[in-house]
Amino acid sequence: MTAAWGAGLRLAVGTLTVFPVRPVDVNRTVAGWAMLFAPLAGLLLAVASGILLGGLLAVGTSPLLAAVLTLGLLTVLTRGLHLDGLADLADGLGSARPAEQAVDIMRRSDIGPFGVLSLIFTVAIQAAALSHIAALGTVTVAGALGGAVISGRLAVTWTCRRGVPAGRAEGLGAMVAESVSARGAGTVVVLVLLGCSMVGALATTVGTTPVGTVWMSVVLPLASLGGLATAEALRRHAVRRLGGITGDVLGAVCEVATTATLVLSAVLLSWIP
């Protein structure tokens, strides 16, 4: 068991980030552990991107430029894997073709108009939300970014739970589909929401923000939950159209959850008097 979860953690980091890990012999059990550990891989990304974002803001960089550069770092640290999945899924679903033809479109190396537009709007929305939250303080925006990045990987865990079939007989989706028990997925969701609450409280303790500790403790987990719900809606639509999940679907739900969490954080924080 210990060897399996250790291998799963390495697989999660090696698959979802560019950070080097020792090679892993992949099997169904290891894949399940990897998907459970996906939010931990997100934590590594959150720390790295949060340090850059905070550093840029500290030296006087404009919030928008700091947000764009931070998103660029995240793209590098993930090899653009999730954005690529989002673009491929947008092309497949946007084609309005039957499931088999839509999956074939998603497997092509080129990118169509739906994919291009999905990337433009997603990155633009993420940058706008980050720059908006930055007005509340460096620690606050770093916390919101961390919550969003981790929530994106939480959506991957949730999507790989039992009862969600694979859309193909091969590929990443086939390996990880239904590899996480419902209890395991639910436990990870609760832990991430509790972590977001703690980060929200910490942001008001060590940072400067007009938002109270209680509010921040509520806003970040609510935003995370909303991001997960948005990703789940996309997952349901993808399964209806494609018959199941693929690696591209996993990348898409990750980016959608991240984006929705950032937007909800920005909106909810704006509503607080």
Description:
The structure is a single chain. This protein is mostly helical. It has one domain (2-271). Helix content is 77%, strand content 0%. It has 12 helices and no strands. The longest helix is centred in the C-terminal third of the chain and has 30 residues, at 213-242. The protein is globular and about 50 Å long. It catalyses: alpha-ribazole 5'-phosphate + adenosylcob(III)inamide-GDP = adenosylcob(III)alamin 5'-phosphate + GMP + H(+); alpha-ribazole + adenosylcob(III)inamide-GDP = adenosylcob(III)alamin + GMP + H(+). Its cofactor is Mg(2+). The chain crosses the membrane at residues 30-51, 57-77, 114-135, 141-160, 180-202, 214-234, 246-272. Belongs to the CobS family.
User: What count of helical segments does DSSP give?
Assistant: 12
The number of distinct structural domains comes to 1
Helix- and strand-based class? mainly alpha
- What portion of residues is helical? over 70%
Per DSSP E runs of 2 or more residues, the count of β-strands stands at 0
Identify the overall geometry: globular
User: How much beta, percentage-wise?
Assistant: under 5%
Query: Quaternary status of these chains?
Result: single chain
**Alpha carbon gap, first and last residue:** 49 Å
The largest pleated sheet is described as: none
Uncertain residue segments: none
User: What is the mean pLDDT?
Assistant: 89
What is the radius of gyration? 18 Å
What string gives the helices and strands in order? Answer: HHHHHHHHHHHH
Task: Break the fold down into its secondary structure elements and pairings.
Blueprint lengths: L1 H15 L11 H9 L1 H21 L4 H15 L3 H14 L4 H9 L5 H21 L4 H22 L12 H5 L5 H25 L6 H30 L4 H25 L2
